[in-house]
Amino acid sequence: MALDLGTQQALHLWHRALSDSVRRDAPDLSARQMAIMMTVYMDSGPHTVRGLSAGLNISKPAVTRALDRLGELDFVRRIKDPDDKRSVLLRPSVPGSVFLTDFAELIVKAGQTED
Fold first, then answer.
1. Which structural domain, as residue segments, surrounds residue 34?
2. Number of domains the chain is built from
3. Per the domain annotation, does 21 fall within a domain?
4. Is 12 a domain residue?
5. Of 100, 113, 107, residue with least CA distance to 18
6. What is the per-residue pLDDT for 115?
7. What is the DSSP string of 63-108?
8. Domain contains 82
9. How confident is the model over 20-49, as a mean pLDDT?
10. Per mean pLDDT, which range of 15-24, 36-45, 57-66, 96-105 is the poorest?
């Protein structure tokens, strides 16, 4: 799905959605936390710290710190890998799904708003 947006239009859309998101009564996620969360929810798994680190080209400690926060919010769950007890798999959760659905609605609304 390609959108025909200019750079200024894209920035205005993102600005409106982001501004609306910080005004709502929901956690304020960093860009890194949001990218990790969206990867877990939108890309087929299984997801691991190592895989997220490689896929997003960020360090494993940075992924771990972001996952710690997402885990505190119950947006992503860590589950022991049944095939490798040393490894942890990352799974979506209902609260995380609700958060992303609400955020997607903010983006849609921002796209419908005229300047």
1. 29-112
2. 1
3. no
4. no
5. 107
6. 52
7. HHHHHHHHHHTTSEEEEEETTEEEEEEEEE-HHHHHHHHHHHHHHH
8. yes
9. 93
10. 15-24
The pLDDT of residue 113 is above 80: no
Residue with tokens 């400690």: 61
Q: Are 48 and 90 spatial neighbours (Cβ–Cβ below 8 Å)?
A: yes
pLDDT tens for 49-107 read 999 999 999 999 999 999 999 999 999 999 998 888 888 999 999 999 999 999 999 99
Give the CATH number of the domain where residue 58 resides. Answer: 1.10.10.10
Distance CA 91, CA 49 (A): 12
Would you say residue 76 lies in a domain? Answer: yes
Find out whether 37 and 96 touch, Cβ atoms under 8 Å: yes
> Is the pLDDT reported for residue 42 higher than 90?
yes
Six token digits for residue 98: 């609700």
Q: Are 17 and 102 in contact (CB under 8 A)?
A: no
Q: At CA 46, angle to CA 61 and CA 21, rounded to 5?
A: 65
Helix (H, G, I), strand (E, B) or coil at 47: strand
Residues 12 and 48: beta-carbon distance below 8 Å = no
